[in-house]
Structure formats: C-alpha cells, structure tokens
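Suppose a colleague, Dr. K., hands you the sequence of a protein chain of 260 amino acids and asks what its three-dimensional shape might be. Before reaching for any lab equipment, you can write down a predicted structure in token form. Begin with the sequence itself:
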Amino acid sequence: MMADYDIIIIRRGLRSEITGDTLQTAEQGFTTDTNQIFIGTDDAVNEVIFDPFANAHATIQSWLDSSENPEPGLKIDEDLVIRNVSNVTALLAAMQDSASFNVGLYARARRNVEVITENSFNQLFADQHLSSLDQSTGLRSSLYSKTFTDTSGVFLSYDKNVCTSFFVDYSLTQTNGSITYVRVGTIRVINGIPQGIDQAKLTDDNTEIWRDNGDGFAQVDEFSNIMFEAGFNGENMEITYTQLPDFATQVTYTVKRWSM
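The predicted structure, expressed as tokens, is then:
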C-alpha cells in the first residue's frame, strides 16, 4: 500500500489575476487557463515589464504619451520594459483603470518570475517553433510583432553605446489591400560607436515569393517595397524603414545583440 502523504496545493487562478501584489515573495501561483507557473519576488523598485503582443511597443508608448499616464515622459524600450518609474504601483493602477489598456493581461512589475513549463517553453534548445499570439490569450509570445502604416519610421532603437552587433530574424507581410507580399530575412547591423567608430552599417538578406503578373519577368512592383536602414539619432542607434504610400507591413521578429 502506498504510504500516506500530504498534498500541497499552490495558489491558482486566471492569468489575468496575476498582478503586482497577488503573490508574496517566494509564493508560487498556477494559472488555470494558460498552464503557467509564477513565483513571487520582492517588490520592483522602478521597472514595469510586459509580455510581447502584437504592436506592443507602439501601443504601450501611445498610452504613456497620453494624459492617462501619471508620469509623463516615460519610455518603453525594445525589451518591453519601462524603466526609471517613480511609482510602479501608481503607474500599474492607472493602466488598470484605463478602459483602452487592459494591463492585467500582459504587464507587471518586476515581481513575479515566470517558471518555464511545457506550455510556455519556446523550444529555445530544441527544434524552434516561435509564435506570435494575441494578447487576449494571456499566453506569452515568443515573437515580437509590429505593424507599420506610415511611409517611414523607426523599426528598432537601442542605446548606441551598449551593443556592437545586431542580428534580427524577421518575417513580414505587406499589403495595399489588393495584393499581399510575403518575405523572410535576416538583418545584420554593426554599430561602431562602442569601438570609437562613428558608423552603423546594415545588410538585409531576404527571400520572398515573387508575385508575377503573368508575363514571366520579375519587376519591381512584384516584390515588397519596404526597406531598412541603420543610423544614429542622438544617443540611440536606430533601424528605420521606408515603404510606398498606401501599404501596411506587419513584421514579426527576434533579436540577438552582441557586445564586443
């Protein structure tokens, strides 16, 4: 006969119920709808972190630039972290009260540490199958995603004094409403600032499906028209884009950064 034993059940609930003060330090919590495990940590001092979701960077920054933000001037970085927050609790509360911004699904103070489980493991050390998930699922995406509707703008921006090398694997779809282009590629950027060289150079190796109009000849308008460049803007190294009017481009991507 199996020996008697005690059953230990940890706190459980919905993913949207995991907030900055749900778990005490070292307490575990299980989300019944997304099968994730979190462990509470000490209070975050001045940072709020977000799980990736489609257009996360633009959506969060738009809210930070609005009158609903109690701390004007805050910026969200490419890691989806708001740094140098004076009052994390007040900022999260303001987001929670915003009808247009449901922070409970994907924002938190640096307080709950997610434990990688079978359900959330992004197969980093196995056959990689990365995915971009809608924020309403509560699941953590393993791909970042942005949509561009303007003819030009900033794709990525980083402190120019930190990293020397950037490797961006991406997949994009571009459409003008009547035709859609599909492209995959790798953007490589070398930033010379940390080595005392005032230059940034970019290469974009890509492959896409040729949308032939039937004449058998490859023409410019049968391929996507978005282009990427690298340069400096103040203290930042930026990867910018340009595209033709009336086109919208959605880019999903991962980034590796090297410091030498």
